[in-house]
Amino acid sequence: MPDKKILLETKDLKKYFHTPIGDLHAVDGVSIQIPEGETLGVVGESGCGKSTLGHSILRLSEPNSGQVLFDGKDILKCSKHGIRKLRTEMQIIFQDPYASLNPRLTVSETIAQPMSVNKLCRKVELEKRVLELMDTVGLASRLYNAYPHELDGGRRQRIGIARALALNPRFIVCDEPVSALDVSIQAQILNLLMDLQEERGLTYMFITHNLSVVKHISNEIMVMYLGQCIEKANSKELFKNPLHPYTQALLDAIPVPRLQSRDKERKSIKGEIVSPIDPAPGCRFAPRCPRATAKCTERDIPLQNVSENHQVACVQFDK
Amino acid sequence: MNLNKEEKILEIKDLSVEYTTDEEVVKAVNHVSLSLNKGETIGLVGETGAGKTTLALTLMRLLPKVSSRIPQGEVFFDGADLLQLPESEMRKIRGEKISMIFQDPMSSLNPVLTVSDQIGEALALHMDLTAEEKEKRIDEILRLVGIDEGRKKDYPHQFSGGMKQRVVIAMALACEPELLLADEPTTALDVTIQAQILNMMQDLKNKISTSIILITHDLGIVAEICDKVAIMYAGEIIEYGKVKDIYEGRDRHPYTVGLFGSIPDLEVESHRLHPIDGLMPDPTKLPHGCKFHPRCPRCMEICKTMQPPEYVDGTHMVHCHLFHHEQPLG
């Protein structure tokens, strides 16, 4: 994608958490590029570091090393004041609409807060702006003075989205924004996020464990396993031609709402994710991989280009 | 398989359940009728608040005593009405003949007891076993759910989420129940672990021919392991039939169509999803007529006032005025 402007880029980003028994490698050398106006989907199972990656990019948790470039500027080198300014352009929608809202603030106070903190809006205009935002995300204006506990999950998530939009950001990290919601509400929120992207040219990093959702919304998808990116490809390509054994297993494990798939024999992978604390060198998926050989654990396996829009980290494709 | 000739294990007739608070009455389950044959798996599908879990708790007689009420209905299991049984009788059935897998494996285990103690509890209550036999049975059941028996003296916190869910399943299966109520058994798990658990449940069904009521909101899971499906909305079963009727049938309830439209399809390219507009009705103020009419894209005048009766076509039952064929569609 040479002609598209890259809005967000990370280079070899690392975030380790220190624990009494060693370093927990939550994000281990992840490099991504998201072109402006597009969506990068990040998928993986719980504990693979996808949320930590999102938080590290926004410096909500400080990365250990690497670079995060937003519009060409290295965020990790920004001063406290600088990052504050940058955060008006980079926002996050959190996973749990029940835990991410302050129960003591009304809907309007929650949405107004980022604007008053950043002094973006005069008091007289604030109400108008809040009502506009509520309208954008589909919240009825009668809920202006409602408290979060009065609302259901879907509406709460809409507040979270309105709050993220309040500062007119260019980039939003969506951290499992629909996983706590019912399917019919999930679809409403996904449609809303896609409409907003179209209208405002937003760039998303969409973190989720739900593969059908990620396919629906993303241009490019990155699969993470134990802190590392193991496969990255154009969304269609990844689903049509998954190369890494883990990606194949993940895709195979999704129950499809069709009867034809009933008799299909599942190749479910055995075992569970191993500890991310001081992991052994080599492919981290090897202990569960049906095609693992001695070669897999000899050394770290880098991401390799297999085609223009497809990269994979697996010895089978290592040149 | 002829439905009528099968041996019925459970029959729910016109069951309603209410929760009462100081101010209002919440109608959680409304006039539900459902039957289940031996060895069959039925998927109970619906959104949060549809009354799925309440229905399961009613069958187990585990509803909160103070705030719940069963104004009408009968639940026949093995010929006896569960709702009329004294608690002492019910305790013999619960855990032995009917058992339940709860949704959240993290919170349905006792953190201060070892796994074998917790599985052994059901065995000690319901089966007359010597200590040695009991240990043997615990090993057997752990192997069945794919846990190494060397870990039986471990505590729940030493297991991962998927393993804990296996322990919960082992507890439910310890006495080889005739009926298993599985309340979202895989919702809290990752997809690869979910696939393992579903495979295991499939095997178990074949091995000990338990009947299963699988509560879920995932239509993909239902397609994979269920024989029949009941779709619940606002406390009612609005559509019921074999999986074929629900997934490939012609006359489907608009709500069911909406549920399918809400799932992003992996195999079909589509730009927008087609969700159901609006929200579930407030269970304290259910709408008149068809409960779904305020959200229904094909709502007619009659839907607003009259509760739709049952329309049956072979094995397929649907509650919707659209399929009332004697009258021209509005």
Describe this structure in words.
The complex is a heterodimer of chains A (319) and B (330). Chain A has helices at residues 50-57, 80-86, 107-117, 123-136, 153-165, 183-200, 211-217, 235-240, 245-252; strands at residues 6-19, 22-35, 39-43, 65-70, 73-74, 90-93, 171-175, 203-208, 220-225, 228-234, 304-307, 310-312. Chain A is an alpha/beta fold. In chain A, the strands form two sheets. Chain A has an eight-stranded mixed sheet, sandwiched between helices. A four-stranded antiparallel sheet of chain A has the order 2-1-4-5. With 330 residues, chain B is an alpha/beta fold. Chain B is 30% helix and 24% strand. Chain B contains ten helices and twelve strands. Chain B has helices at residues 52-60, 87-93, 115-126, 131-144, 161-173, 191-208, 219-225, 243-248, 254-262, 301-305; strands at 8-20, 25-37, 41-45, 68-77, 80-81, 98-101, 179-183, 211-216, 228-233, 236-242, 310-313, 316-319. In chain B, the strands form two sheets. Chain B has an eight-stranded mixed sheet, sandwiched between helices. In chain B, a hairpin with a 2-residue loop joins β9 and β10. The chains are: A alpha/beta (319), B alpha/beta (330). The A-B interface holds A 45-46, 152-154, 182-188, 190-191, 194, 209, 211-213, 215-216, 236, 239, 249-259, 261-262, 266, 268-270, 272 and B 47-48, 160-163, 190-196, 198-199, 217-224, 243-244, 247-248, 258-267, 269-277, 279.
